[in-house]
């Protein structure tokens, strides 16, 4: 298997270390995290879910924000 070098800050390296299982090397850890990300964000929606989100998008595009709450991104650690 061909290998590549990636550069990580010490902070990211330490954060990754905390996520690793005892039996995992960094290649396995990163592969597992990618799998989790892909399974969380790229699953297909059911027809009913797609219809719901498409309907909500149309409301937003027309300026209808009824039932929507403003979220303070500082709560999530974002500025």
List the helices and strands and how they pair.
Blueprint: H1 10-19, H2 26-41, H3 47-61
Structure report:
With 79 residues, this protein is mainly α. It has one domain (10-76). Helices cover 52% and strands 0% of the residues. The protein has helices at residues 10-19, 26-41, 47-61. The longest helix has 16 residues, at 26-41. It is elongated, with a radius of gyration of 19 Å.
Short description:
This protein is an all-alpha fold and 79 residues long.
Helical proportion? Answer: 40-55%
Shape: elongated
Record field, number of beta strands: 0
Portion in beta strands: under 5%
Q: Segments where pLDDT lies below 50 for 5+ residues? A: none
What's the average pLDDT? 87
Order of helices and strands: HHH
Distance from first to last alpha carbon: 41 Å
Properties at a glance:
DUF7557, Antitoxin, mainly alpha, 79 residues
